[in-house]
Amino acid sequence: MASRKAVLQFTNVHTFPMPAINITPCTTTDLHTLQDIAINSYGDHYLYLWYDGGMWYINRCFSEDALKKELEDENTAFFLIYEQEELVGFLKLNINAEIEGYTAQEALELERIYLVKTASGKGIGREAMTFTKKYAQDLGKKVIWLKAMDSSKSVAFYEQNGFEKCGTYTLNFEAMKEEYRGMYVMKLELA
What we know:
Blueprint: H1 4-14, E1 16-18, E2 21-26, H2 31-45, H3 55-61, H4 64-72, E3 76-83, E4 86-94, E5 107-115, H5 124-138, E6 143-149, H6 154-160, E7 164-170, E8 182-189
Parallel strand pairs: 5-6
Antiparallel strand pairs: 1-2, 2-3, 3-4, 4-5, 6-8, 7-8
């Protein structure tokens, strides 16, 4: 279970209010809210990747059991993203996640930044990136890294936010169409 000290720290230090945007910590009490936004935001953008319309991935990653296990992992931090009062997305950060050239204590992985389609193009993703950078800096991290699909417009978004390609990766999901399995590993070194 996530440590209460960490949750209190997130609540007191890392709630990130902005004009119209609010990014708040997500805990096990928010499990069903997280599950709903995860399925909705994923469904808005990624179902075309799969032979089965995404059901294999949704069942694997967004089932109640899978999300509960991740929410209880002290190395994982989830945040809900609101525009006004409407839930529009979420972040999943892996707090200590090694990448070549950096120890786990020096590196933070941005595993998921998912927004519903209606939230796209409004600067919400940019605000979530600003939040992630500040969060990483507050933890004393030297780098943020992620994996982005090489066929996705998200690569350009990450590059606009200072990330550089530093490697490649191939997904090994049998239900995924082969032409979409390629990914770039990208990193942002923090000053």
